[in-house]
Amino acid sequence: SSVYLNSMKTNTYGVRIDESTFNRFEKNNLVNNSIYNIYNLGIPAVFTNNWWGSTSVTNIASTISNHGGYSNFIPFRLFGEFNNEENTDTDTLPRITQVTAYVTNESSVILKWNQTSGGDFVKYNIYHTTNETKWSNFTYNDVITQTSPVIITNILDEGLDGGTHYYYITAMDDPFSLYTNECWYSPGAEVTVVLTTLISISKSVSNISVNNNPTGLIPGSTLTYKITYSNTGAVGGKNIVIYDRMASFVSFSTSLMGTATGWTMQYTTNNLPSQAFDSTDYSNGYTVKTNVKWLRWKKPLIQSDEDGQTLIYKVIIK
């Protein structure tokens, strides 16, 4: 037997099934029945794609007797009831299947997903949580933003706290003013933000003039770079990365001098990647504004009492 496009809500009891060999409940409104939504004494039925008045699988399960497992009642309807009138749109858009997230800088994340193929698409909903298991208990308050039109499949989420963040995407239509269809959540995208704002950085560079010519412009001359840092936070900073900008026409020594310890030099690049703390420009003798390359220093942990430490290395003008 099949029960399709009915409203059973705000009753003491919803539906009672005493004996049956097959039951399928689809596109029904099963809402706020105080004792139970469905009392099933037969074999476990199929309860997918209904509106339950909740997005919590735990809450929904508690209103169904003999539900046969969570997979049988995934609440595809997330944003409202079905319109039970004839010839109304009760079909959800295809589920979003590909979601990626990555950190772009200290506290921002770029989120991307695949474009839906639904013909009556209106908007994407972007759900966000820091609770790994909350996806089954989302509310509308967990939607951080909505995007439209259909070709916009990425956002920048800024100002995030440190830690692991989880994102889920849904697509929804809105063919009628009072009703809308929303697909089930996409697979989650997980990203970890490591804040580096605990430290402060200043930079200086030696530049001795010879015959009124800045040493820094004479091939073979040496400049000494000094990065002074301090951890002004109450706790240790983890995975600290400093990108030190320098002119592209220098070569550098990887030997670390000064009072700083535990730093490793990783590589030079013309791009400034994520999770970086950018040291300041310098203007002693000459200013590097263009043709810049980056030297990456990394340390796994900076203690809260590391104040005034110096990271020193030398570069030679090519």
Question: Can you walk me through this structure?
Answer:
With 318 residues, the protein is mainly beta. Helices cover 2% and strands 42% of the residues. It contains 1 helix and 24 strands. Strands 11-10-13-14 form a 4-stranded antiparallel sheet, with no helix packed on it. The radius of gyration is 29 Å and the shape is elongated.
Tags for this entry?
single chain; about 325 residues; mainly beta; four-stranded antiparallel β-sheet; 1 helix; 24 strands; about 0% helix; about 40% strand; elongated
Give a quick summary of the entry.
This protein has 318 residues and is mostly beta strands. The protein has one helix at residues 57-61, and strands spanning 2-4, 7-9, 13-17, 24-26, 29-31, 36-40, 64-65, 99-105, 108-113, 121-129, 143-147, 154-157, 163-173, 189-193, 199-205, 209-210, 213-214, 222-231, 237-247, 250-252, 264-269, 277-278, 292-302, 309-317.
